TrEMBL record:
Entry keyword Kinase: yes
Organism: Parasedimentitalea marina
Enzyme Commission number: 2.7.13.3
Classification lineage: Bacteria, Pseudomonadati, Pseudomonadota, Alphaproteobacteria, Rhodobacterales
GO cellular component terms, A-Z: plasma membrane
SUPFAM superfamilies in the cross-refs: ATPase domain of HSP90 chaperone/DNA topoisomerase II/histidine kinase, Homodimeric domain of signal transducing histidine kinase
PANTHER family in alphabetical order: SENSOR HISTIDINE KINASE YKOH, SENSOR PROTEIN QSEC
UniProt-annotated location(s): Membrane
Name under which the protein is recorded: histidine kinase
Length: 461
């Protein structure tokens, strides 16, 4: 199992947080902009009403019989009362003298010229008021006289209106933030969807599918796909070289060793001195050990290589087992071993025929190698509703006092292997092949109790 890769956080989460954060900032800006705009509009509207009221009062001022008269119309003050329930104050003054109205009302329009108006926010009797001052010059007794109209109103209603506007602006900002959050999540999902699709497309490939990736991707992902295709190309070349090397190495290692062994056997027949014959026998034994070790090492390398890229085809295990028994029959006869096959018609499995043949051959090699002369080896195929098994039973003593799980580990040999040529890879190869096909390797004592029974169990296709 591969180790978990180190991570630097989630790209989707990071993108989502950035977009949501941007949405929050924009929502806050929107809240203050809308609130400020609404406040300005409300203030301008209120000021316009105040100015209209002051203008209405100013229009009611007239000069009659060299006296200034003021007839304040009802509408001048009632228009302010219609806006809110705030209190209204007014004052009409000329040359600093109050003609009518509230005498203690703050005076902030003394420097106004005729026709000018000015607005102020002041405090009056503990309340905040909004005041407008409007000035006009009249002719009184042939001399100019400046009339100053002051109209003010408390701001409780305006404050309530601004509070309502603030709530509306807040609701607008929250709504904008909610929409921005939804769009941010959708955008983040959409942005990484091409990466997920590329990952899924590569993950669906089989072990031997080393084609370059040609799936359309966004321009930002092109460097990643190019690097992936370059890696696939290098891997394809490396695997081809490894496969060729294993095949070539198997040929070049086995052929010279077989030649040396043949020459040693010929020389053994010609030599008469006991010490020389003993040396040649040791040489032949060493050659056999080297040949078998090299062969099984190369077989194990081939198995390891092919396991990652199984060539799955229909396999008739009965036919495969029968062919191997026929092929190894001469070797068994040299040791006076009766190698017998009992086959039944079994369903086919799907797998790599070369690997399965290699696994069965290693089990048969072990059985022949460890079985004594004048013994029997029984090979059979059996199947159930879900599995099909190849069983090999011998009379080599079995593994009664041994850990059978440990025997399937690399370079591990049983106690009965002392003095017998071997490398400890036969059962390892068989186990790895069976497990690669989803099956199990069972090592048990034979029914007769005189040997072992090794079963290669494969699931049915």
């Amino acid at each position: 199992m591969s180790e978990p890769l180190p991570t630097s956080g989630s790209l989707r989460r990071r993108l989502t947080l950035q977009l949501v954060g941007s949405g929050a900032i924009l929502a806050t800006v929107l809240f203050f902009v809308v609130l400020g705009f609404a406040r300005d509009v409300a203030q301008q509207t209120h000021d316009s009403i105040l100015l209209a009221s002051a203008t209405s009062i100013m229009d009611s001022v007239s000069v009659q019989a060299d006296e200034v008269t003021v007839d304040i119309p009802y509408a001048a003050l009632s228009m302010l009362g219609n806006v809110s329930d705030d209190r209204v104050f007014y004052r009409v003054s000329m040359r600093g003298q109050v003609l009518t109205g509230y005498q203690d009302l703050p005076n902030s329009g003394q420097n106004l010229r005729s026709g000018q108006s000015a607005f102020d926010t002041l405090s009056y009797k503990g309340d905040s008021i909004r005041m407008v001052n409007l000035s006009r010059r009249l002719s009184l007794n042939g001399a100019p006289a400046d009339i100053l109209i002051s109209v003010a109103q408390t701001r409780e209603g305006q404050a309530a209106q601004l509070a309502q506007l603030s709530r509306s602006a807040l609701q607008l900002g929250l709504g904008f933030f909610l929409v921005a959050t939804i769009l941010a999540i959708w955008t983040a999902q959409s942005s990484i969807r091409p990466l997920k699709q590329l990952t899924a497309a590569v993950s669906r490939r089989g072990p031997k599918d080393l084609r370059p990736v040609k799936r359309p991707v966004p321009s930002e992902m092109i460097p990643l796909v190019l690097s992936l295709n370059q890696f696939i190309a290098r891997l394809r070349v490396s695997l081809t070289r490894s496969e060729d090397f294993i095949a070539e190495a198997a040929h070049r290692v086995r052929t010279p060793l077989a030649t040396v062994r043949t020459q040693a056997e010929i020389t053994l027949r010609r030599v008469e001195k006991p010490e020389n014959r003993a040396s040649l026998r040791e040489m032949i034994r060493a050659i056999d050990e080297s040949s078998r070790a090299a062969g099984q090492l190369l077989d194990h390398a081939m198995v390891t290589f092919r396991i990652d890229s199984l060539e799955r085809k229909a396999i008739d295990l009965t036919e495969l087992s029968n062919e191997l028994v026929d092929r190894l029959q001469p070797i068994a006869e040299l040791k006076d071993i009766n190698l017998h096959f009992t086959g039944y018609s079994c369903p086919e499995i799907t797998g790599d025929a070369i690997l399965v043949q290699n696994a069965v051959r290693n089990i048969l090699d072990n059985a022949i190698k460890y079985s004594p002369a004048d013994s029997a080896i029984q090979v059979s195929t059996r199947h159930s509703d879900s599995t099909i098994a190849i069983q090999v039973e011998d009379e080599a003593g079995g593994f009664a006092d041994m850990d059978t799980d440990a025997l399937t580990q690399r370079f591990t040999r049983g106690e009965n292997a002392v003095g017998t040529v071997g490398s400890g890879l036969g059962l390892t190869i068989a186990r790895e092949v069976v497990e690669a096909h989803g099956g199990t390797l069972l090592i048990e004592t034979s029914k007769s109790g005189t040997g072992a029974c090794v079963s290669l169990c494969f699931p049915l296709a």
